[in-house]
Sequence to fold (89 residues):
Amino acid sequence: MKKEKTLKRPGRVGFILVSVLLAVVLAINIVVVAVLPGYYNLANHFLGNNQLKDEASEAAKAESAAVTEEIEEEGIVLLENKNTTLPLT
Fold:
């Protein structure tokens, strides 16, 4: 007779280690979310990474619309149905 292999469940030590690890990750997450946004805004202020002003933003949107329209016009392909190879009626 063969003995069937049984899976061992993690013991109490494994459960405690996983619990402590999750608690540490949660604490780090709370600190990052609570503290770092202030430092992020402060660093952006000193580095001059401000968002685009309204006039520049409107100009960029207009330019983007023009480029999009140009690409759209160039992307249109007309198919020629020579010798009725395409299944069109």
About this structure: The chain has two helices and no strands.
